[in-house]
Structure prediction request, 820 residues.
Amino acid sequence: MATTALGLVTSVLALGLGAPTQAASTGLVISEVYGAGGNANASYTHDYVELYNPTASSISLASMSVQYRSSTSTAAPSAGGVSSLASAGSVAPGDSFVIQLATGGAVGTPVPNVDFVGNSSSNLSATNGQVYLANSTTAIDPDGVGNVAITDAAVIDFVGFGTAAIKEGATAAPAPTSNSVSITRNETGTDTDVNGTDFFLAAPTPGAAYAPPPPPAQFTGTIAEIQGTDSATSPHVADIATTKGVVTAVYPTGGFNGFFLQTEGTGGAVDATPGASDGIFVFGSNAMAAAPVIGDYLQVVGEVVEFGSQTQLVAAAGGVTKINGEAHTAPVARVAPLPGSDCAVGSCPTATELAAAREAHESEAFAPTGPFTVTNTFSLTNGANGFMEIGLAADTKPLIAPTEVSDAQTGNVAARTAYNNAHAVTLDDGSSLNYTTTSSGNPMPWITKDKSIRVGAATTFTGPVVLDFRNNAWKVQPTSQVTGLGEGTATFTDTRPANALPQVVGGDLKLGTFNVLNYFNTTGVAFDAQPGTTCSYFNDRTATNPVTVSNCTPDGPRGAAEQEDFLRQQAKIIRAINTMDTDIVSLEEIENSVKLIGETDRDDALGALVAALNADAGGTRWAFAPSPDAADLPTLTEQDVIRTAFIYDPTTVELVGASKVLVGSAPFANAREPLAQAFKAKGAPDADAFGVIVNHFKSKGSGADDGTGQGNANPDRVAQAQALVTFADSFTSERSITKLFLTGDFNAYSAEDPIQVLEAAGYAQLESDTPGEESYSFSGLSGSLDHVLANAAAVGDVTGVDIWDINAGESIAYQYSRFN
Prediction:
């Protein structure tokens, strides 16, 4: 909540919950409450409560505390909800007193004019709760049911806000509509013992000198006038506006709790008000009380707010009325390309220009023209962000990671980034439900077991949408919450054909590389059962069934939680590898068994995978390249709990010599050491052997950012590429082979520095025969982090190349770790 300065009250105020007088009032009142501290778009970094002394004498706080409990609680708060003021001193006459509490993040500026730092664990709700000033330094229960009645002298002042179960009087103080407003006592400073009458919402001004805030201005005009043209912020913020329009979309369920309103007669191919939007989102229970439906012609009265930089009207009580009998022309969806997207690389708008182009049509009905392609499926079901959102590109293909195609130092990365920004938009489902948590037991919209939406799928809009800015992203919303496949909003081409196979690449032998996503045949619960181990887990939507390991101490399994989960994971890997039908496969992210407590065989998990592959194939289809002897391996402390490996078809391929791991390399202290192996066609002389080195460089997710736009730890990957070149030279020399392939997960896009190091050393990237195929999709951008490179002697032997996209573009709803 936010605090505003309150007026001097010349008499001791009578306070009470459900009683006309307080048993023993001190005269102190709670003047402001701010609970959004540190949250997104917050004004200040911490929550706070402001007190005000309206009397002519100082008031000691030595016997008091500020207490907080949730909106539904009728019990004494926990210790974290109590801020004792025993050492806080006193409040001077006519002065305010600011008490800083917990922080919810790092957003905002420090709270000014802090008089006392209270309990840093007292984390207020930003929207609904109960705050009270108690004549006690320990927790009390002021609800008339527990140990302290509301008329007791222990309760000095009480503020129930939002949906609070307990409040002063018949109505609660209003719930803040954004993280940049607070609950503040009204401009007269009076206390009528009714929270809903005494408090309103205003900008936070903790500890400011008393200046009665003016009542909100009244404004009557069009939606375009409310939206304004000068910036993303309405010129009428905090005003009480009266406007009218037609409902274009409505969301009685799903959490949006509001509807979109658009000025009658606007839309279509002609912009009625260039630079200003003719649509607005009307929010709140008051908005929905009139049961609006699409097509209703309404008058709306409400406060103008900016919530997450979206201009909204928060409807007043009784503020939505239907207009009957007045002739009007319904608005129509704007027929146009995605604003800002009519550009090519090098000519796209700046971030400021793009925001202005879209802001001019915020909340308007929209009928997008031009091609659209799925570019992001991650937020369909990504754990904490499983909001069933689909990232789209206003293009015929997915958006490309800038450093996939441009050198970070000399290429046009900025132009590619501007292009991506201009062509990106998110298709939402018209709800704020998270479908990967227990908060939503509903069937997921958009997708089913048999109906997938994949990166690269062409998208066709089959009905109007609304251009929306929400959660710091531009989105298009369906006109009502999607609860099925959303075919009335959009359809998607099926790019997952049944019985899909890799392309034919020719040749006598086939070489592939595959990341097995933390394949551990030691499950988390099995590891956890050993003495001295502790594991935590990610659960499915029941919140009680563990599916994957979150963390183990000491470092242990990173894969399946239980055997049933492991079998689901393994079945997917087996089907993929056996369908690849290659002769040699390099593997990344397989269990390094010797790193686990009680394991002595480094190849235990690798052997288990081969046995399962052969069982599925019905014969000896696969064998594995054994690890080097222990004396030829890095020390256990140097090795990671995951490793690389090779499997091969013993009917077509033979090993030539033992495998070799790079030992004692400082650049690989934070990554998996390269593994080399020489192979030959079965029956061929050893002189025909060729080498393969499988790699798994340091990820982009941690380490230092060198500022080049290539992710974290780029200097580490550069050093690893340099060390790999030296290792490769050594391996080919000692094995007397000339042909060498480098495979695996390099965690570097095709134009990035580590790949350039390898190319400078004479290794060529082997590109797919199908132009535009990429191996990876991250944050809505496609590119290849996985590569096969070949030296000059080996390139001539390559007859074809394919990237077999079986899961990179899929929603992780289909991953074993998202079971249920």
User: Anything to note?
Assistant: Confidence is low (pLDDT under 50) at residues 1-25.
